[in-house]
Amino acid sequence: MDSFFLIEKGVLIVVIFAITMLIALYSTFAERKIAAFFQDRVGPNRAGPGGILQPLADGLKMFTKEDFTPDTPNKFLFILGPGLFMTTALLTSSVIPWGDTVNLFGREFNLQVADINVAVIFIFGVVSIGVYGIMIGGWASNNKYSLLGAVRATSQMISYEIAMGLSIISVLMMTGTLSLREISLQQYGFINWNEHWFSWYVFRQPLAFLIFLTCAFAETNRTPFDLPECESELIGGYHTEYSSMKLGFYLFAEYINMFISSAIISVLFFGGFNYPGMNWVNETWGINAVAFLGVVALFIKIFFFIFFYMWVRWTVPRFRYDQLMNLGWKVLIPLSILNIVITGGVILLLK
Questions:
Q1: pLDDT tens across 80-118, in order?
Q2: Are the C-beta atoms of 205 and 269 separated by less than 8 Å?
Q3: Neighbours of 65 (CB within 10 A)
Q4: Which contiguous run of DSSP H or E holds residue 336?
Q5: Which of 31, 247, 329, 336 would staple 166 via disulfide (CB 3.0–4.6 Å)?
Q6: H or E element: which one contains 104?
Q7: DSSP state of 327
Q8: pTM of the predicted model, to two decimals?
Q9: Residue 102 burial (CB < 10 Å; 0-12/13-18/19+)?
């Protein structure tokens, strides 16, 4: 194998890991500031100018806290749970196309760790494994609140993964591929003038987008679907017995999942690294400028959805658990199936 290829992918992995952890770290700060804004207060403002060093202080606190382990016969599984959850959260970033091809030193560099032709299936497979981290941690905690939170998380994620997967099928029927890079390239620019309509799939599949977005809230355990860890009922849910960096892994993984799900939504429905005026940028400044601005455009979309997650958390009240399950099984799944049928009919009519 080409050594330059290994170096390129190794550097890309390190950069993506660093960016992911940094965004997860400062998402905690952004959430506290946004909550303070909505509640007409200041928020964290002690550590550094405007509180900008607060996430670093919180991270240091996590590292230095006492590492408490409850009286459980499953100490190995107690340690494995948060590690597994964190690992699966980070793995999904490997198949996301973060930008277009860059030409440096006479070589073309693909801003994607692994451009596999089954990327969508890979993401769903890894996300499905992630629920084991919650289930194992809650069960090994030897605590009834943790176990109840783990059971809630498992049933919730299984239920909403079905609707999420079905919502994607209608997009895959239109794209004809499971590669996230190919899906991004098919949404080139903002308007596909050859077909005289918007090329981003949010305009072609609005119902699929709404279903996927709703399921993403449930998959990431965010309000109004944060039933597995709701403090008013379960203290802290599946991570009640955790402390130090084990607790930090669970909390960080939630923000990483929020970041990655925002990236997946941007790639599937909002053109990924595509943006208006790409042809003009290419003709004026070249392919590298197109790629650089594409990375910027993708992260702007991602940050918008991260803000939307936080906006909903501090605006919408929590669902009851029976309402959560009814929405998943009786509303979202039938709507996803109906959308598949309609999409198939339209494709046949346009042939």
A1: 888 898 999 889 888 999 988 888 777 788 888 888 889
A2: yes
A3: 14
A4: helix 333-350
A5: 336
A6: strand 102-104
A7: I
A8: 0.90
A9: middle
